[in-house]
Specification:
The chain is an alpha+beta fold. Among the domains are: 50-301, Beta-galactosidase, Chain A, domain 5, CATH 2.70.98.10; 353-442, alpha-1,2-mannosidase (Glutathione S-transferase Yfyf (Class Pi), Chain A, domain 2), CATH 1.20.1050. A hairpin with a 5-residue loop joins strand 20 (339-341) and strand 21. The protein starts with a helix and ends in a 19-residue tail after the last strand.
Length: 764
């Protein structure tokens, strides 16, 4: 279903309409495998290829590089594919990576891919019979080659079955997300060499992560009968190696079909030796099926963290697919010897047992993805925490916001690694939090350190209490997001014993009030002279055509971006009844967006936009004003309308697992509106029973007997057999394990958690 049709469908539904798509099975069922094609169509921007959980290599087919639809390199429904590259981004709104493209095919040799609408003009191939499962991908190409892919954490393993006769493998090191006409080439240097036994190479790329390097080392199960290198402009360059910018190599086989041809390829961001060491450590044999079995075992362990019973088959597939997508990244970034590239662009070596990671989409993932990890994978959460502390120490820009392959991209706004650190500290994840404080303090109070787009206007935010919309773009969202990061940073200041700074941050995190207009009840842009900017429309994205006042959102959505002081926002709006009415207005408003609105504002229910992260906590805000039953109804509606077990089944970019994590936690029956508070707001579980494997052998069981599409409401809750009257629960309780039992109903219990003392964030 295209976005316009789907948007119209959602807008025409009443705010509390409940979809009846999921019918309940009568008996418990076996674990449902994920569908790796979920999110590969529409705007999900996921990929179906082989990866290990949080692995360095994501070996996957690429169908195009020139469209926003193919930020991951792949879009379901494209009729031809280019080949198989070793690195990908899952669910992002910007494209990069796609390193070391391998193209198995037959003569004649073509060195250019050709356009997607004319695949016969290049090395593109039509394909059929795709098969994808965790750690494995297979497809049949029109050349007659059957390709199979699997992985280790740092190496890609290929198995190609050629028809009888000659064939070749093209290695295209010029393959990348394409630069536009007239732009400076995005690869400024590259090299490949053949030593008679191994093909090695490198390139430096200036796409999104500007200046990142990739190195590879490749071995083949049968030595080629001939090899050709090609340099810039596809100029022949002999048989031993080539340097330049856009390079290719062709490995020829006189009888490629004599038997299966295997390729082992290790990668590294550090150097050639790192790629060779990674390859030798992890790819020691030529038994493809053994590699595939090892990858399956790794995925079985990760996907076993959550098991559910009841619900429709489609709902279970959505859950398992979401758990898969929430297990792909952050991606491993350190070599087997512990070396990695820091955000200072220097090579560092980790202590034994430590690992470095890349691809942190922190503006997105601090909201639900990282809270999911602290719950089900505390060891991974500890590794991510230690890694983000190191990156904060090494980066010239302070705490990261979107680090990719040793480069701080500065993408989005804020520095939400601070929120991830503060959440981890609040939930008892062990780490040296004080070590991060000097880098955080410099970012927040030292105006001499450099800025990227994410931190613009910080001095004005500090000195004026807001950011002038006539000076800095996305000013309103910046104030709101900077306020949350101040709140989180105060917790790290506490860990460092910086009491004065902590107090200052707790005062400054109230700056959200300076962009809230009590007269209209909306967050609004202000000009440098203090006046509200005109014109203003709640569904508008900016008061000027020059730039936007909001980040991938509008005033309707941004007004509720206040997770750390919800009750302050309630008071500013005039109390619980006014706040509830404002939420009702959000979900029932006309869904029209102005011309030029970013495509990320998708999945509309009124002006609520589930397709993008600023809205993700908002359905749970009803619980703060005593209307928990409305949270239950809306959360159930969002789960059933915004997700499907289909290629276009994610309503917006999956954003490195954030969209998926929202579904997982909501389907379990709770969500972290404010992750740093270490509490969860209770909603409406989707299944009859869920078993969640926690750390240290503990288990959380969520029960909802008789739950169905017709019973979205909660009549009562018990925790370990005792009545639970609150509509929230602490992480410290859940993480100890136990049984959370929901009694579901087809009619709302408006008295449940309606008392002030039972609402989140209020004293008992």
């Amino acid at each position: 279903m295209n976005h316009l049709t789907r948007r119209a469908l959602l807008a025409s539904s009443g705010a509390m309409t409940l979809a009846g798509a999921f019918q309940l099975d009568a008996a418990p069922v076996a674990a449902t495998p994920p569908d790796l094609f979920v999110g590969t169509g529409g705007d999900g921007h996921t990929f179906p290829g082989a990866s290990m959980p949080f692995g360095m290599v994501q070996l996957s087919p690429d169908t195009d590089t020139a469209r926003w639809d193919t930020c991951s390199g792949y879009h379901h429904g494209d009729a031809s594919l280019l080949g198989f590259s070793h690195t990908h981004l899952s669910g992002t709104g910007i494209g990069d990576m796609l390193d070391v493209l391998v193209v198995p095919t037959r003569d004649p040799v073509r060195l250019q891919p050709g356009p997607i609408d004319e695949p016969d003009e290049g090395y593109r191939q039509r394909y059929s019979g795709e098969q994808a499962e965790p750690g494995y991908y297979a497809v049949v190409l029109e050349s007659g080659v059957r390709a199979e892919l699997t992985v280790t954490p740092r190496a890609g393993i290929h198995r190609y079955h050629f028809p009888a006769g000659p064939g070749h493998i093209l290695i295209d090191m010029s393959h990348l997300v394409m630069e536009g006409p007239g732009e400076t080439p995005l690869i400024d240097e590259a090299a490949m060499a053949w030593d008679g036994m191994m093909l090695t190479g490198t390139r430096r790329v200036f796409r999104w992560a500007k200046g990142r390097r990739i190195f590879f080392a490749m071995q083949l199960s049968r030595q080629p009968d001939g090899i050709e290198f090609f340099g810039d402009e596809d100029a022949p360059a002999g048989a031993t190696g080539v340097t330049g910018k856009r390079l290719k190599a062709v490995l020829h086989y006189d009888d490629a079909g004599a038997g299966p041809l295997l390729v082992r390829c290790g990668i590294s961001a550090v150097d050639r030796d790192g790629a060779i060491a990674n390859l030798k450590a992890e790819a020691k044999h030529w038994n493809f099926d053994r590699y595939r079995a090892a990858a399956k075992r790794a995925w079985d362990a990760e996907l076993g963290h959550i098991q559910v019973q009841g619900g429709a088959a489609e709902a279970r597939t959505i859950l398992s697919s979401a758990l898969y997508h929430a297990s792909l990244g952050p991606t491993l970034f350190s070599d087997v010897d512990g070396r990695y590239v820091g955000l200072d662009r220097q090579v560092h070596r980790l202590a034994d047992g430590a690992q470095a990671y890349s691809a942190y989409s922190l503006w997105d993932t601090y909201r639900a993805f990282h809270p999911l990890q602290t719950l089900i994978r505390p060891k991974h959460a500890a590794a991510f925490t230690a890694d983000l502390i190191r990156q904060t120490q090494q980066s010239p820009f302070g705490p990261p916001v979107w680090p990719l392959q040793g480069v701080e991209t500065g993408c989005m706004i804020g520095w939400h690694s601070v929120a991830v650190l503060a959440e981890a500290r609040a939930k008892g994840i062990p780490a040296d939090y004080a070590a991060a404080w000097p880098g955080i303090e410099k970012r927040l109070f030292d105006w001499s350190i450099p800025h990227l787009d994410n931190s613009l206007g910080l001095r004005e935010y500090d000195e004026m209490g807001f950011i002038p919309a006539d000076r800095i773009f996305e000013s309103v969202s910046r104030v709101l997001e900077y306020s949350y990061d101040d709140y989180a940073a105060a917790h790290i200041a506490d860990a460092a014993g910086a009491g004065d700074r902590a107090a200052r941050l707790r005062q400054r995190c109230g700056n959200w009030r300076n962009v809230f207009d009590a007269e209209t009840g909306f967050a609004r842009p202000r000009l440098a002279d203090g006046r509200w900017a005109q014109p203003f429309a709640p569904n508008g994205i900016g008061h000027s055509k020059k730039w936007r006042d909001f980040t991938e959102s509008n005033s309707w959505q941004a007004t509720f971006l206040n997770q750390h002081d919800v009750h302050g926002l309630i008071a500013a709006m005039g109390g619980d009844a006014a706040f509830e009415a404002k939420l009702d207005g959000l979900f029932t408003a006309d869904s029209t967006l102005p011309e030029g609105a970013p495509p990320d504002i998708s999945g509309l229910v009124g002006q609520y936009a589930h397709g993008n992260e600023p809205s993700h906590h908002v359905a749970y805000l009803y619980a703060y004003c005593g209307a928990a039953w409305k949270t239950q109804a809306m959360v159930r509606r969002l789960m059933t309308e915004m997700y499907r077990a289909a290629p276009d089944g994610i309503i917006g970019n999956d954003d490195c697992g954030q969209m998926s994590a929202w579904f997982i936690l909501s389907a379990l029956g709770f969500y972290p509106v404010d992750p740093v508070s270490a509490t969860y707001v209770l909603g409406s579980p989707l299944f009859e029973r869920a078993s969640v494997r926690l750390g240290q052998g503990r288990k959380l069981v969520i029960e909802a007997p008789g739950n169905s599409a017709a019973t979205p409401y909660v009549r009562a809750i018990s925790w370990n057999g005792q009545p639970w009257t609150k509509c929230w629960i602490a992480h410290a309780d859940l993480v100890r394990g136990g049984t959370l039992r929901f009694e579901m109903s087809d009619t709302p219990n408006k008295n449940f958690a309606a008392r002030v003392e039972d609402c989140p964030g209020r004293p008992a």
